[in-house]
Amino acid sequence: MNNQEWIAEGEKYLMHTYGRLPMVVTKGEGSRIWDADGKEYLDFVSGIAVNGLGHCSPAVVEAIAEQSKTLIHCSNLYWIEPQIRLAKLLVEHSSLDKAFFCNSGAEANEGAIKLARKYAVEQGHGERTDIVTMKQSFHGRTLATLKATGQEKFHQHFHPLPEGFSYVSFNDFADLEQAITEKTCAVMLETVQGEGGVVPADLTYLRQVRALCDEKGILLILDEVQCGMGRTGTLFAYEQYDIVPDIMTLAKSLGGGVPIGAFLATDKVAAAFHPGDHGSTFGGNPLVTAAGTAVVETMLKPGFLDHVREVSNYLWGKLQGLKEKYVDILEVRGKGLLVGLALSHEGSGIVSFAKEHGVLVNCTAGTVIRLLPPLTVSKEEIDEAVAVLDAAFENNIGQR
Ligand SMILES: Cc1ncc(COP(=O)(O)O)c(C=O)c1O
Known about the structure:
17 strands
């Protein structure tokens, strides 16, 4: 069946929860995907930061194939070999001590929220139930993570939502200081905001937040679901701030395409969870953690993160060039290969133009073109994508 025929079937049988582009993706390899009409695209969306190693990376394909011959699933009533292996890798290469595996970013954040509240209880502060998050943040679509998300547009129609969340302006330390009360148990933020328009935490701000949390005896939760796993040029984005979180959440690129999420915590904080406090049927099952192990092992190979830094510098140079050329590009921002072009107008026209010309990019927060190429992207592929963006701006796309 071709694109049109598949889409007709999809319209009939799937809930209409996504504003999808009119293409059906049937195959992926490296930085490229193909649709049901056989058209090839350069993929600078990467499943929204999931395909960090590119599509069908041989390391991930092999890990899944091998694991599927041995053991696909077994319950967390028992110990699971690849789960232990992946936890060890993440712990040994972060500043955190224990991991819990789940199935998505939202679930990772749900778990982090539960852990922060339980930690407060164990510290003798059962009154500390509240979490301060950032305006324009995005933490997921479950009821609690929706409420943690500081964007009202996601809340409407879904009330009542869980209590215990308040919002402050991102990168505004004074706003945060006044928002902390005797009821606060944690501050939660994305090290680099993704959905909210690709905005990194300022260096000084994040250090001040860390110091404030220490002073108040509350936890710092970093959501690295989108910006973690090598995307910013270090395995975790927080490494570039010279601070350590108490809890960090991960998902997206962690599994190279299979559904996995995780939250990591320091020993002191993780000790608040006892058997029965949290769990997941599929969380950390052998198949997904074997894939995750292959992903992390690949990212830790000498040269991998150097490559991310080198190509991201190259991409930033090219995008700065575009900014100098076109007044409708207000800012190039983000970190590493999580890049936003903030425009003076709507970005959806650019996305459609790029798609027609064989390059997939995404628009977030209405006016920000977000580029999330695979971490394995080459300079030639960057040239190709930037040439299409150049043509889009040259033709005043989106300005009309
Ligand atoms: C920073 C951040 N946190 C959490 C989530 C939710 O992840 P998931 O869609 O896997 O539940 C996302 C998804 O975009 C995200 O970007």
